[in-house]
UniProtKB/TrEMBL annotation:
It comes from Alkalicoccobacillus porphyridii. PANTHER family: TRANSPORTER (PTHR42948:SF1). The chain crosses the membrane at residues 12-29, 41-65, 86-114, 134-161, 173-191, 216-241, 253-279, 299-332, 344-364, 380-400, 421-442. It is a multi-pass membrane protein. It holds the Pfam family SNF. GO terms for molecular function: symporter activity. This is Transporter. Coiled coil: none annotated. CDD domains: SLC6sbd_Tyt1-Like. The lineage of its organism: Bacteria, Bacillati, Bacillota, Bacilli, Bacillales. Belongs to the sodium:neurotransmitter symporter (SNF) (TC 2.A.22) family. Keywords: Membrane, Symport, Transmembrane, Transmembrane helix, Transport.
Length: 451
C-alpha cells in the first residue's frame, strides 16, 4: 500500500496547479458577462481592489491551513479542532465542490461541443439570431448535452487519476501557458478592430456613477469565485506544498495572474462587441451566442473562434481538475493506491448528479425551484450560499483555532516576510474579510441591497 504524502515537484509546479484551479471559467466566461452587466470599468476597478484586499488574505489563509497540517480539506479541520463544529467546514467544502462540478461539467460539455462545432465549420456564416438559435438547440438536446458532459467529466477523471505530479501538475504546466498565449494573441487581434477604443474605455475607464451596492456585491462574489476560495480547494492544494514555498508571494502571483486573465478576456470580447454593434450586457450567453457572431465578421474569424474555444476548454478543465481532486483527496486520505478507483467512481457519481442540470434547458425546462431552473438552483446554492458560508467559517476558524505565533511561523516560512505584512494580513483575515463576507451572505439571503 502506498501511503505517502505527495508534494508538487517544484515551487513553480504549485503556482501552475493553483493557477489552473483559479484561472478557469470564472475569468474567461463569468467575468466578461458580469462586467458587461455591471458597468464595465467601474466593476473592474472594484473587482481589482476587492481581489487584492479581501481575496488575497483569504487565499493566504487557506494556504497556511493546508501547508501547516499537510492534510486534505476534511482532515485539516478535524486535526486542528477535533471537538469543534468547525470541523464541518471541510465537509462543507467537499460537498460544495461536488455540487459545483455537477453543473460546471455541463458548461465544460458545452465547451467541447462548441470546439467541435467550430472545427467542423458549423458556426460559420451564422448571424447573431442564428447563433442564439444554435446555442438554444444545442443545450436543449439531451443526447448532445449528456454526451458532452460525460466526456468532459471522464477527461477530468483521467487526469486526476494519474495523481498530483503526473496528472494535475503536468497538465497545468502546459495548459496554463497555452491559455495565456492564446488569450494574448486574441487580445492583440481584438485591439486592432475599429471599436477597440470604445471597448477599452468601457472596460478600463471607471464610471463611478455606476458603482452601487450591487456592483460591490457582484465584484466581491466574483473575486472569491475567481480565486477558488471558500471551498477549501486551496487548503488541499497547499497541503502538497513544501516549507520552502513563499505563501504570501504565491498568493499575490496567483491573484495578479487572475486579474491579468480577466483583463485579457475583456480585451478579447468588448472591442468586438462595440465594433459590430452588439450589447455588452448580453449575460451568460455572451460567450456562446454572441462571440461566434462577432468572430464571423472578423478576418480569419473561423481560426480565431477555434483558438478561443480551445482555450475555453483548457480553462474549464483546469478548474475541474481541482474540484475533483478535493473530493478524491478527502477519501483517499494519502493512500495513493485508492486514487484511480476514487477518481473514476466520483466522476461517474458527479455525472449522475449533474444529469438534471444538463437537462434543464431541454427535457426538464419546465422544472423550476423557487422560480429557478435546476441548473440555476444548484449554481445559486453552491456559489451564493455555500461558498460565502465556507469562506466565513475559514476566516473565523484561523485566528480562533491556530495560535498567532504558529500562524506567523507558517506565514514567513519560505520567505523573508516582515511582521508588518503579517500584522496587516492577520487584521484583514480576522476582522475585515469576515465583515465583507457577512454583507455578501446576508444580501444573498435577504436581498439587502436589492437587485
Amino acid at each position: 500500500m502506498t501511503n505517502t504524502h505527495v508534494q508538487w515537484s517544484s515551487k513553480l509546479g504549485f503556482i501552475y496547479a493553483t493557477a489552473g484551479s483559479a484561472i478557469g471559467l470564472g475569468a474567461i466566461w463569468k467575468f466578461p458577462y458580469i462586467a458587461g452587466q455591471s458597468g464595465g470599468g467601474a466593476f473592474f476597478l472594484v473587482f481589482l481592489l476587492l481581489t487584492l484586499f479581501l481575496g488575497v488574505p483569504l487565499l493566504i489563509g487557506e494556504y497556511v491551513l493546508g501547508r501547516h497540517t499537510g492534510k486534505d480539506a476534511i482532515l485539516t479541520y478535524q486535526t486542528l479542532a477535533p471537538r469543534s463544529s468547525f470541523q464541518l467546514t471541510g465537509w462543507l467544502g467537499v460537498i460544495c465542490c461536488f455540487l459545483i462540478l455537477s453543473f460546471y461539467s455541463v458548461i465544460g460539455g458545452w465547451s467541447l461541443l462548441y470546439l467541435g462545432s467550430s472545427l467542423t465549420g458549423q458556426l460559420s456564416g451564422l448571424s447573431l439570431e442564428e447563433s442564439q438559435d444554435y446555442f438554444g438547440h444545442l443545450i436543449a438536446s439531451p443526447q448532445l448535452a449528456l454526451g458532452a458532459q460525460l466526456l468532459f467529466i471522464l477527461l477530468t477523471a483521467f487526469v486526476v487519476a494519474r495523481g498530483v505530479q503526473k496528472g494535475i501538475e503536468r497538465a497545468s504546466k502546459w495548459m496554463i501557458p497555452s491559455l495565456l498565449i492564446l488569450l494574448v494573441v486574441l487580445a492583440i487581434y481584438s485591439l486592432n478592430l475599429d471599436g477597440a477604443s470604445t471597448g477599452l474605455r468601457y472596460l478600463l475607464a471607471p464610471n463611478f456613477a455606476a458603482v452601487d451596492g450591487e456592483t460591490i456585491l457582484f465584484a466581491l462574489g466574483q473575486s472569491f469565485f475567481a480565486l477558488s476560495v471558500g471551498v477549501s480547494v486551496m487548503v488541499t492544494f497547499s497541503s502538497y506544498a513544501s516549507k520552502e514555498q513563499n505563501l504570501p508571494a504565491s498568493a499575490m502571483t496567483l491573484a495578479l495572474m487572475n486579474i491579468f486573465v480577466a483583463l485579457l478576456a475583456g480585451l478579447v470580447i468588448f472591442p468586438g462587441v462595440f465594433t459590430f454593434g452588439f450589447q455588452p450586457d448580453e449575460g451568460p450567453t455572451l460567450i456562446f451566442a454572441v462571440l461566434p457572431a462577432i468572430f464571423e465578421q472578423m478576418a480569419f474569424g473561423q481560426l480565431l473562434l477555434i483558438a478561443f474555444f480551445l482555450l475555453f476548454l483548457f480553462a474549464a478543465l483546469s478548474t475541474a481538475f481541482s474540484l475533483l481532486e478535493i473530493i478524491v483527496a478527502a477519501f483517499v486520505r494519502g493512500n495513493q493506491d485508492k486514487r484511480k478507483k476514487a477518481s473514476w467512481f466520483f466522476a461517474i457519481l458527479i455525472f449522475i448528479a449533474g444529469i438534471p442540470s444538463a437537462l434543464s434547458y431541454g427535457l426538464l425546462a419546465d422544472l423550476e425551484i423557487y422560480g429557478r431552473s435546476f441548473f440555476d438552483t444548484v449554481d445559486y446554492l453552491a456559489s451564493n450560499i455555500l461558498m460565502p458560508l465556507g469562506a466565513l467559517l475559514i476566516c473565523l476558524f484561523i485566528p480562533r483555532k491556530i495560535s498567532k505565533e504558529t500562524l506567523w511561523l507558517e506565514f514567513r516560512s519560505g520567505s523573508n516576510t516582515g511582521k508588518r505584512l503579517f500584522a496587516l494580513w492577520y487584521a484583514l483575515i480576522k476582522y475585515v474579510v469576515p465583515l465583507a463576507i457577512c454583507i455578501v451572505f446576508i444580501d444573498q439571503l435577504f436581498g439587502l441591497f436589492g437587485k
